[in-house]
DNA sequence: CGGTAGCTTGACCGATCGGTCAGGGACTGC
DNA sequence: GCAGTCCCTGACCGATCGGTCAAGCTACCG
């Protein structure tokens, strides 16, 4: 490792490349990202990228795999306490924390999960999302419930990656405010009707 | 195919190509779509695509431009009746109709509007979405309101393009049920708190 | 000091990218 | 019959794609 100061140069380069790659995958999409662009943006050569990661798909796996692991852990816990509205609220808290800690990865596999079928890590993500949907929606899943879940998932993934909401002058929303707002919105969308939902136009 | 039966062959081929291209742009993304794939999928040659549309960007413009026109018309009307909750509800009705009639185009410019900056038609879409945000959120826009709008927009765009919600066995939700569900969800998200919103966990 | 392992790189590969261009076949008007 | 227009296409262009390979460099170990 040339001119290594702290940890191994391998780990440092890998981390930098993973991070830059994730940013590209989330913003311009996996298919539209080139190894050359990622390498340039990270300050390495394309060959270096392919030294640390066997292929473009392997780089994707390294970039979003850990986030999917975390999601699977979350789902494992979810199986235990089911159904009770209070515990669902607690799950939403944890879920929002997960979203905030994995913004780019979530946006990547939520919005590209359909088109990247066949890539193992994406398949894993799709299975996890499917399990999440089954756990959140009732098993008999009315159309309304599926729409609520889809809007919650897609909406959260969207807002997490779209920093300032198309407003060029935006002041970059503070994370804790986003967190509380997101918990509130997802609670409204996913919690079984808490007595006072304004039932207009159903 | 030069054997023209009904309308002009130009118009028919253009329509087919626009449709196929829009499907590709919405699903795999503009940058990851190739003219060759679009041509193959439509049953034409790549040269034919570039005969009908001067460039890949021109094809994008043709594919989503009309939808953006419709959105701009919708916004023009929105300026007139502002603020009153009842009229906002009526606007949501019309907006959902617009979403359902322009599923793929909406998904395309909502989810790729950030990464495709510089393309004129995308710039136009971003301006329209920005205007929509300013009209829906209050001008002073709390973080919670911006999150609500973002979740509503991103969530709607997501669910419109993601046909069966990751569930391989899904029975393809009927459009009218999706419509009513979407109106209900967007009303909850965007209508100023209608007296009885369950204010949990704020 | 020589050897070796780890990290980086440029040169190179075949395939594909968006785009240009010169035609070819089918139809119309003369 | 012939010119012209319209629609479509294959051949071709330079650039870039993901990926391979061998060489070079630094650091450490004997």
TrEMBL record, chains A, B:
Annotated ranges, domain HTH tetR-type: 11-71
Q: Does the keyword Cytoplasm apply?
A: no
Alphabetically list the UniProt keywords.
DNA-binding, Transcription, Transcription regulation
Q: Name one GO molecular function term.
A: DNA-binding transcription factor activity
Q: Residue ranges of the DNA-binding region? A: 34-53
According to the UniProt entry, the coiled-coil residues are: none
Name of the featured protein = TetR/AcrR family transcriptional regulator
